[in-house]
Specification:
The chain has about 475 residues and is α+β, with helices and mostly antiparallel strands. Helix content is about 15%, strand content about 30%. It is built from 7 helices and 30 strands. The strands form 6 sheets. Strands 5-6-11-7-10-9 form a 6-stranded mixed β-barrel. The protein has a 5-stranded mixed sheet with strand order 1-24-23-16-17.
Length: about 475
């Protein structure tokens, strides 16, 4: 009996201890500081795949590692594009503007000539950094799609060419394609306009869709016949937003139960992964969950993932920021926004504390790159052996410690890096947006049925 009581006490103590232990990225901080190797932030010319016998964290032995996530530039990307910070930040600023523009959910009043019904016309956001390969049609062809938690529609570029030109899907070459939508109540035509004036227009079609290893014999997606803009070498968009009946999560709900998770790689020469279904949650038992919140009425139909951000700590010191700053109009977690946007007061407090810590660590400051205006706090990191830890505090007593790659954005100069946060400018009403830079090396799990988002340590997306 005595032994049982002692065991129960130890189990309770361990549970309490774990509940107050922050979730960390690949680099765990000691006493509020990361000791990191600068070279870990630098790109390499060769894609780094897991070595023989090496497994992805959170995937059981013999389990499926999900869809590989790559940057849309660098050695792991099939596009072969080079990184351009100027292009990335311009698109990022366009995305943030569009997210904060409540008018972007309006439907066009133009009637389709074919069926005289309104055509869905969404004005969305800029291009994300991350791609996955999906299979479309029978026989199956692979296409690289942008993953986007802010987009409800999945679409792919289509053409009538008999060759796979310009990453396009030819419906006539698929024996399982139907020109009629799988969902009879939806319109036949679609139009998606992005904040940088790029767009995709076409018709909804129905075909076999593969999220390896899951196969869906009837999946509705947009077949883009008129495409304009820079989509980063991608063939289209994989929409992971909540809501609409034609969203991927709604169409696959009976099998995948509106659950998915991802780990975004910290650097472009590494790969991450995207998982769907029960395995997206069950594969990581130490996930810590914060509740998904109901969106404000003006954002109700957009499918964004609202969470309760209540504070920020730097080097184990809680910043003097009121949680109300993040609550109105709210905070979203977004896979497509790159740099996290904070309210002005919150950003200024974080920047001031970060600058003070870097001064004490003897890290020499440098001017921000002349070709970008977004980031304003930069350093020569070759002289820095340590980096102050940044922890995001969420409702439900969830603490998330950011990986060093989620704190700094490396500049084109290999010696330079900047604090990867920015102020939500031009919008006194702007949302707080947790961008993908801050999510790298973490497992982020979405469980829509249970109304929660989880965070876990994924050690750079592999062991």
């Amino acid at each position: 009996m005595c032994r049982l009581l002692i065991f129960s006490f130890l189990l309770l103590f361990f549970a309490c201890f774990m509940s107050n232990t922050p979730v960390h990225g690949a680099g765990q901080a000691l006493a509020g500081y990361h000791t990191f190797d600068v070279s870990s932030l630098l790109p390499r010319n060769k894609c780094s795949a897991p070595a023989a016998g090496q497994t992805v964290v959170g995937i059981p032995p013999g389990g499926h590692a999900g869809l590989a996530i790559t940057y849309n530039y660098g050695p792991c990307s099939r596009s072969g594009r080079k990184k351009s910070t100027t292009r990335i930040f311009l698109q990022d600023q366009s995305r943030v503007r569009s997210i904060n523009d409540k008018s972007f959910t309006q439907y066009s009043t133009q009637e389709s000539v074919a069926d005289r019904s309104p055509t869905p016309k969404l004005s969305l956001n800029g291009v994300s950094n991350f791609l996955v390969d999906v299979g479309i049609g029978r026989p199956r062809n692979k296409f690289s799609l942008i993953i986007d938690t802010g987009s409800p529609i999945t679409w792919v570029q289509c053409s009538s060419s008999k060759k796979r030109e310009n990453h396009s899907f030819n419906p006539s070459l698929s024996t399982s394609y139907s020109h009629d939508p799988c969902i009879s109540s939806t319109d036949k035509n679609y139009s998606v306009t992005y904040a940088d004036n790029s767009y995709s227009e076409g018709v909804f079609g129905c075909d076999e869709f593969t999220l390896d290893p899951d196969v869906f014999t009837k999946f509705q997606f947009g077949c883009g016949r008129k495409i304009k803009g820079d989509f980063g070498g991608a063939s289209g968009m994989l929409g992971l937003a909540q809501g609409e009946q034609y969203s991927l999560l709604s169409q696959t709900a009976s099998n995948l139960k509106k659950k998915f998770s991802y780990c975004l790689p910290p650097v472009e020469h590494k790969k991450g992964y995207l998982l769907f279904g029960d395995k997206a949650i069950s594969s990581s038992p130490l996930l810590k969950f914060t509740p998904l919140l109901d969106p404000p009425s003006e954002f109700d139909s957009l499918g964004f993932y609202f969470v309760e951000l209540i504070g920020i700590s730097l080097a184990k010191k809680r910043l003097n920021i009121s949680s109300s700053l993040f609550a109105s109009p709210g905070t979203i977690i977004d896979s497509g926004t790159v740099i996290t946007r904070l309210p002005a007061v919150a950003y200024e407090a974080l920047r001031a504390a970060f600058r003070q810590e870097m001064l004490q660590l003897h890290c020499p400051s440098i001017p921000p790159p002349s070709d970008q205006k977004l980031l304003d706090t930069c350093y020569n990191i070759t002289a820095c052996g340590k980096l102050p830890e940044i922890v995001l505090h969420f409702g439900g007593e969830v603490e998330v410690s950011l990986d060093p790659a989620g704190i700094l954005w490396r500049t084109e100069d290999r010696n330079g890096a900047c604090l990867a946060f920015a102020e939500t400018s031009h919008y006194s009403y702007g949302l707080t947006i947790i961008g993908n830079r801050q999510q790298v090396s973490l497992k982020v799990a979405y469980d829509i049925e249970e109304g929660r988002v989880g965070f876990g340590n994924d050690n750079g997306c592999m062991t």
